[in-house]
DNA sequence: TGCACTTTGGCAACACCGTTGCCAAAGTGG
DNA sequence: CCACTTTGGCAACGGTGTTGCCAAAGTGCA
């Protein structure tokens, strides 16, 4: 199933996966070896193996294919230059296994994190390893054109510096937007952004395919591909409070790609007014506690919201991050964990793991996977 | 993606879909024509078309296949007896289209709804149309063996009456359970059920494949296959309050198949104590309002919970049902809709549709799809 | 009535992918 | 040095969807 819940899956599932599902056209040319899902799966296993590499037989076992199929697939991938042989394992009484490795230099992508006050652009290779990075101040309030100008300038400078021709640019930014069309919605406090077709404008200005998504989704995607787990939620506590959901290994964006509105979950009926117009939102209560210097209470409120989410979706793992969490990660992990553990004891069943992550880094590095993930069948 | 979030998808996605994913083995024999996903998709389109039937060219268009592929697939399905020709369309200037139709009598399944005080067993044909039905009183408190005895007796009587040999038995029942293993968890108030391997016990006693699931999931599955939408939530308000989630066309059961715990979502921090040990659960507040004769307040609380869910998951549609809702469906639809509409106005974007459904009927008829859905690639 | 035209759908050949059978290559150990 | 193990490529095969071609079955105008 595609990551966005598109109504009728037009082409049959076993037709060649179309790379244009999330990107503009013009990318699939020259990468014909990714035609089948199995090739993408093998490539993903090679990515996961990293610099250590992985043998054909291990690939076969993990992909559920015969060794001969893997030989054929990897032969095509080697012909494309995406994969290379890299030494041998020690023998176990017979011919030693040849180790295969993803060729990181075979491709690259750019990740762009647009935050309210700063821009970060990073160029990475096919394995996601950073090649170069640039930061610049940004003013959302200055309007769309100014932000686009800055973004184009920084990305161009980055590409000039690295000399690579990336597959595309993944853009992560806060606030509601339509992932499928790349159009922004009402960003709270910045009404002039409503309806701005960021994806198409950037794509035209840069001459590259562009994918935009919420920062929380980008972070969740990156964490999923870094191997977090099959099913988890990433809670981002920054200037706002949002969630990125990974369900069944894929980012869940919902019918209108608006999923993840965790912060405006009501946990206090008729509670204090929130900026969104609701009363008793998790975000209002949590951030008010932070502002009042009561982080323990903030963590408890966050935990109650997380417990609601865990009960509803039954995820394996809850990750917390963002500027607020970074101030005292242990405190938030303990606070959320306490609420989840208490509920798990009552409901029965194993407790859900809670961990803190560097939120800004997750967003920054996650943005590039908006472009690269489809190559590995994780689009 | 499979409906349960199983960690690493062992076999490759384009291997023949294994019917045993949800059922015991022994079912796939004799149905070799369902090997590929495309055949299952074509069969599902034929099912959706119902008695009116559908032409090969329409199938090709909707399945994203060439007409010739559909000809081959339907030829195999006709050879298996699952599909038959059924008349012709009016000509549009050439050879008239031959209409194909699912043969309902080509198979059957049994749905079993175990409620706290009553049992309903229904036998249906391949299209889901009821063939026969039986009801019997039931006492969960009498223990597992007595309930199993009753279930076996009723299902046997049903099969004797209809004379069919069903593919299997789908069992829907309240309370937490493990869908993957078919083992019950702590049913609130009935501790002796904890750990009871209902699926395997029933399968052995009946000599048939058995699938068990929560009543809310069964209802959601049935509603999804009846064409509700691609992404919706079914909220069941009965003796408890639970949800069945359909995300991207598939029932979301979560990592440990425990998803859908909607009722014990906290919406009133430090609120009144709930039977689960939490404070301020939607279920406690909602049902207390019902008991106090304040259904408007109950609907508002339900709506707040639904709004939290919609924000988090971005579903298209919210369906409400169950005994409490049946008492005054319009009131609950209006109440939930009011809360969702208010939030949609603030957030922007189109409002979410709210509808009432006959909950008991949805569960009863949904149970059979636990068995039949895999045949149509919707497992 | 007859013939040109349109539309449907089957047959045959083909391309693609993964599988099975077989065997060469490259090690270890007695 | 030889038997044995393990890896992995080559060739043939089976299954599936596609393309090219053509027969079947209608409509509509002369």
TrEMBL record, chains A, B:
Question: Which residues fall in a compositionally biased region of kind Low complexity?
Answer: 17-30
Regions of compositional bias (Pro residues) in chain numbering? 1-16
Signal peptide (residue range):
none
Question: Which ranges of the sequence are coiled-coil?
Answer: none
Q: Which Pfam families match?
A: HTH_24, ROK
What domain of life? Bacteria
Q: Which InterPro entries match?
A: ATPase_NBD, ROK, ROK_cs, WH-like_DNA-bd_sf, WH_DNA-bd_sf
Region described as Disordered: spans on this chain: 1-30
Q: Which family does it belong to?
A: Belongs to the ROK (NagC/XylR) family.
Q: What protein am I looking at?
A: ROK family transcriptional regulator
């Amino acid at each position: 199933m595609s990551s966005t819940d598109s109504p009728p899956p037009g082409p049959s599932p076993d037709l060649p996966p179309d790379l244009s599902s999330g990107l503009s056209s013009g990318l699939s040319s020259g990468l014909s070896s990714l035609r089948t899902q199995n090739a993408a799966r093998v490539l993903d296993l090679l990515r996961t193996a990293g610099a250590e590499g992985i043998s054909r037989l291990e690939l076969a076992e993990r992909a559920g294919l015969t060794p001969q199929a893997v030989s054929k697939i990897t032969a095509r991938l080697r012909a494309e230059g995406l994969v290379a042989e890299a030494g041998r394992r020690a023998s176990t009484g017979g011919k030693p296994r040849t180790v295969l490795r993803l060729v990181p230099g075979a491709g690259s992508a750019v990740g762009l994190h647009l935050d309210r006050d700063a821009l970060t652009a990073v160029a990475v290779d096919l394995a996601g390893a950073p090649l170069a990075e640039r930061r610049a101040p940004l003013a959302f309030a200055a309007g769309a054109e100014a932000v686009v100008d800055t973004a184009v300038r920084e990305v161009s400078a980055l590409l000039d510096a690295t000399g690579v021709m990336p597959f595309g640019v993944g853009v992560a930014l806060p606030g509601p937007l339509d992932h499928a069309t790349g159009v922004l919605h009402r960003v709270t406090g910045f009404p002039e952004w409503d309806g701005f077709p960021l994806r198409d404008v950037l794509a035209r200005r840069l001459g590259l395919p562009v994918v935009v998504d919420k920062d929380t989704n980008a972070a969740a995607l990156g964490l999923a591909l870094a191997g977090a787990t099959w099913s988890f939620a990433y809670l981002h506590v920054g200037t706002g409070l949002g969630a990125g959901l990974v369900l069944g290994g894929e980012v869940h964006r919902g019918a209108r790609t608006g999923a993840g509105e965790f912060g405006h979950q009501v946990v206090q009926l008729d509670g204090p007014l929130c900026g969104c117009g609701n009363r008793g939102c998790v975000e209002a209560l949590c951030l008010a506690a932070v502002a009042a210097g009561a982080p323990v209470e903030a963590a408890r409120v966050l935990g109650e919201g997380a417990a609601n989410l865990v009960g509803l979706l039954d995820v394996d793992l809850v990750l917390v991050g963002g500027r607020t969490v970074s101030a005292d990660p242990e405190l938030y992990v303990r606070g959320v964990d306490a609420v989840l553990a208490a509920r798990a004891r009552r409901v029965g069943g194993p407790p859900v793991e809670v961990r803190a992550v560097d939120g800004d880094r997750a967003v920054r590095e996650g943005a590039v996977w908006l472009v690269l993930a489809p190559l590995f069948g994780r689009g």
